[in-house]
Amino acid sequence: MIKNDLLIKAAKMQKTERTPIWIMRQAGRYLPEYRKIREKADFLTMIKTPELATEVTIQPVDIIGVDAAIIFSDILVIPEAMGFEYSMQEKVGPKFKTPIVSANQIRKIEIPDVREKLNYVFEAVKMTKSQLNGKVPLIGFSGSPWTLLTYLIEGGSSKNFGKTKKFILNERKAAHQLLEKISLTIIEYLSIKIESGIDIYQIFDSWGGVLSKSHYLEFSLKYIDLIISELKKRYNIPSIIFSKGVFNSLEEMSETQANVISLDWTIPIDFAKKVTNNKKSLQGNLDPTILYANETEIAKEAEKVLAEFGNGNGHIFNLGHGILPDIEPSKLKFLVDYVKSESRKYHE
Question: Rounded to 5 degrees, what are φ and ψ at 283?
């Protein structure tokens, strides 16, 4: 039994007394309490140690007062489980030891035993769920197949995704084979996460916006929908799509079986509501840099987001992307308290 189930209700477009709020990357470097733990363990050690992952997952619930916890992990645990070793380099990001350069590599990839390879994630979910004791919902997540493909082909982050685009244009069949294998792995991964205790999940499509609309529908949304559709057959749990920079495919996203569409800060939320014909709950979408401002400005911008969504249910307040690491925690706490207080008038 979840005591504060506002997020779940909002995801299902059910009536709530106020707008729920959580923040992408809420368990992270902006919190001194997180940095204290990080001084003793590197990032990969933290995500692979259930006790540490649990501790940092719960921190923002207790310190900031958000309406949900999101399990502390990394989207790249999926490709690692599939046999692609990576390291996390300070100020550089992830680096894969052996990127994909040929279709032959893809043919050799086997669907891993996710339960065995990623048991540390599932143990962290169980431990976190137990320690939350029903206080707020627990969010699980995965990267989208397309986003994970880009890391595997680029070997890490990229500015122009040239290697990836060259590959999908010249090795289209192999690219789809890889996307299918990643999708099947994600389905099993999220299935076990659900069985371990998560209450809702989000698919992070961080690099969907680097694609043209036709390529986005072919290489990204198709596989996100595949994953969500398959999980809907197995479980009664809400789902969220977050495709950053994909302004042009809101209508197509609204045709998927996802419950919630998460918006980046470049998309006016009232515009998204019209385009999706109010068929989906919407999440977002304050510009993360607003939290550099003073409290008066933060309140003004938060009110804009609430007013743009307007009266009614189905809004989950969030930033339009992850919180930046040099934000003062007090600024986020102010935002959370403001939304909790001032959103009530939109639910009367």
Answer: -120, 135
The reply to whether 29 belongs to the active site is yes
Q: Which of 86, 151, 189, 201 is catalytic?
A: 151
**Preceding peptide of 119 cis, ω within 30°:** no
Q: Is 74 a catalytic residue?
A: yes
Place of tokens 């169980």: 126
Would you tell me which CATH number, out of the four given (3.40.50.300, 3.20.20.210, 3.20.20.70, 3.40.50.2020), belongs to the domain 6-346?
A: 3.20.20.210
pTM: 0.96
Q: Catalytic residue among 25, 115, 120, 270, which?
A: 25
Give how far Cα 276 sits from Cα of 165, 239, 254, 261, 271, Å.
29, 16, 6, 9, 9
The separation between CA 139 and the C-alpha centre of its own chain, rounded to angstroms, equals 9
Q: Is 151 among the residues known to form the active site?
A: yes
Active site residue 34: no
Contact in structure between 347 and 6 (CB atoms under 8 Å): no
Domain boundaries, the chain: 6-346
Each residue of 96-150: pLDDT tens digit? 989 999 999 999 999 999 999 999 999 999 999 999 999 999 999 999 999 999 9
Give the side-chain half-sphere CA count within 13 A for 153: 23
Residue from 245, 231, 228, 224 nearest 191 by CA: 231
Please classify residue 162 by burial: count the beta carbons closer than 10 Å to its beta carbon, then call 0-12 exposed, 13-18 middle and 19+ buried: exposed
Among candidate residues 134, 153, 248, 138, the one with its CA nearest the CA of residue 202 = 138
Catalytic residue among 5, 67, 74, 205: 74
